[in-house]
Amino acid sequence: MNVPTNPFRASLGTSPPLLVGRDEILDDFRLALEEGPGAHERISLLVGARGIGKTALLNEMEDVARDAGWLTFSETATEGFVSSLKDQLSDFLQQDKSGRTSWQLGPGFLRVKHEEQSQSRQSTSLRAMLTAVLDKLSDTERFNRSGSGVLITVDELHFVHHDEIVEFATAIQHLVRENLDVAVVLAGIPSSIRPLLASDGGRNPITFLRRANRVDLGRLTDSEVREGLAVPVTQAGRNWDEAALEKAVHATGGYPFMIQLIGNAAWRFERGEQIGEASTDKAITRARKKLGQLVHEPALNDLSAEDRRFLAAMSLDEGPSKITDVAQRLEVSHQQAYNYRRRLYEADMITNERGTADFALPYLREYLRDHVVSDILRVPVDEPQNRPNSAPRRLRDYHALSD
Ligand SMILES: Nc1ncnc2c1ncn2[C@@H]1O[C@H](COP(=O)(O)OP(=O)(O)OP(=O)(O)O)[C@@H](O)[C@H]1O
Ligand SMILES: [Mg+2]
Region annotation Disordered: residue ranges (predicted)? Predict the structure, then answer.
C-alpha cells in the first residue's frame, strides 16, 4: 500500500497541519492590520504554558501579515536579539527592488554572514533603522499601496533580557506614536513575562507591553481538538474510527501539543485505512511518554529539589490538592507550604485556587507518580501497595527519603 505522509508534527515549535481554536485571535489581528495605526491588536502579547501553541500562532500571524502585504521579521529574544534584528533590517535596506515581499532569514545565518559589516550598523539606532525600512516601503512602488507595513515577532520573551527588551520597546513606542505602520507580536511563558511586566516606578517603557493586547492562550475545547485530529487525517486520505477519535480527543486534555503527539503516533501505528482503537490506545501511551520527555522533564529540571518534592506530594491526590494536606505530608508549616505554592505558581507549574493547588500541565500528576515520587521516595511504583491511591498520608512513612 502506498502510505501517505503523516500529517501531524510531533515537535515543539513546528506549525501544525491545522491550527485550531485561534480563528478569533487571527481575525482580530488581520482587522487591526487593515484598520491602521493605533489598532490595539497591532501590539500583541501571547502568553501561555509550554506547548500551548505560542510559536505556532506567531507563525500564523506572520502569514496573516504577509498575506496583507506586510514585511515580517522574526526574532527569538535570546541575547543580542536587537542587534540580530538590526542585521535583518539592514539586509533589507541593502536589497534592491527584487520584488520579494517578505524576509524570513535566520538570525544565526545573518550573524555569520554580516559579522564584519554589523559593527557599523550597530551604531545606528533601531528606531532609525525601522524608520528607514518604513520609508523604503512607501518609496517602493510595489509596496506603495494601502495596508502594508512592518511586523516584528519576538518569541520566547524572557525577563533576563530585560535591557534589550526595553531598548526594543522604546523604539517601537516611538514609531507607534508617530502613527507608522508597524506591528509587534511578542510571546512567552507567564513566569518569564510576569517579572517583565512588574512595576518599575512608572518610568518603564515596558508600560508599552502592559498596554499591549494580551492574549492568554489556554486549552482548546473538545470540538476544536476533534477538528485538529480529524481534518488532517481526512485530508491525507484516511479516517478515524469514531470511538477511537473520541478517546484521542479526551486524552489530549485540550492541550495542543497532545493533538500532534497522539495524531502522529496513531497515524504511524495504524496499518489500515481507518485509525482504530488499538492504534489509538498505543498512541496515547506513546504521546504521554513523549510529553514527559519534552515538557515535564525540562520543566521539573528547572525547579529546586524542594519544589519537586512539593509537586510529588501533590501527585498523591486524584484532583486538586489541599495545601494543608500537602503541608502535612511534607511535615512543613502551612506558611512554608504556601510559600512553595507561590513559587510553583510563579513557575507555571500549578494553578492557584483558594486553599488548593492543581497541576497546570496535563499528565504531570501521572508523570510525577511514575518517575519523581518513586525517585524521591525510593519505592517501586509497580507494587500495588505503593500506588498513590493507597499511599501513606505522610511522606516520612516511606522512610528512605533521598535527601
Ligand atoms: N492551535 C493548535 N492546533 C493544533 N496544533 C497546535 C496548535 N497550537 C500548537 N499546536 C502544536 O502543538 C505543538 C506545540 O506548539 P508550540 O511549539 O507553538 O508551543 P509553544 O507554546 O510555543 O511552546 P514553548 O513554550 O515550548 O515554546 C506544536 O507541535 C504545534 O504544531
Ligand atoms: Mg515556542
Answer: 382-403
Nearest residue (by CA) to ligand 1, atom 4, is 19
Question: Which residue range(s) make up the domain with 335?
Answer: 303-398
Q: Best substitution site from 55, 58, 154 to test ligand 1's pocket, by max atoms within 8 Å of Cβ?
A: 55
CATH of the domain at 244: 1.10.8
Q: Could you give the 3-state DSSP secondary structure of residue 274? A: strand
Q: What angle do CA 216, 222, 224 make, to 5 degrees?
A: 65
Sign of dihedral through CA atoms 136, 139, 140, 145? positive
Whether 105 is in a domain gets the answer yes
Instruction: Give pLDDT tens digits for 136-169.
Output: 888 765 555 555 899 999 999 988 888 899 899 9
Q: Is the CB of 377 under 6 A from ligand 1?
A: no
> What are residue 336's phi and psi, to 5 degrees?
-65, -40
Amino acid of residue 37: P
Distances (CA, A) of 191 to 82, 110, 160: 22, 30, 11
Residues 134 and 157 in one domain: yes
Which residues are paired to 321 by β-bridges? 357
Residue 17 domain-assigned?
Answer: no
Say if residue 347 is in the same domain as residue 375: yes
Ligand 1 close to Cβ of residue 254 (< 6 A): no
Distance 89 CA to ligand 2 centre (A): 23
pLDDT in tens, 1-37: 566 799 999 999 999 999 999 999 999 999 999 998 9
Q: Which three cell numbers stand for residue 23?
A: 480563528
Distance from residue 6's CA to the centre of ligand 2 (Å): 22
87 located within any domain: yes
Q: Does a structural domain hold residue 298? A: no
Residue 15 Cβ < 6 Å to ligand 1: yes
Q: Could you tell me if 296 and 367 are in contact, meaning their C-beta atoms sit under 8 angstroms apart? A: yes
Q: Is 234 in the pocket of ligand 1 (CB under 6 A)?
A: no
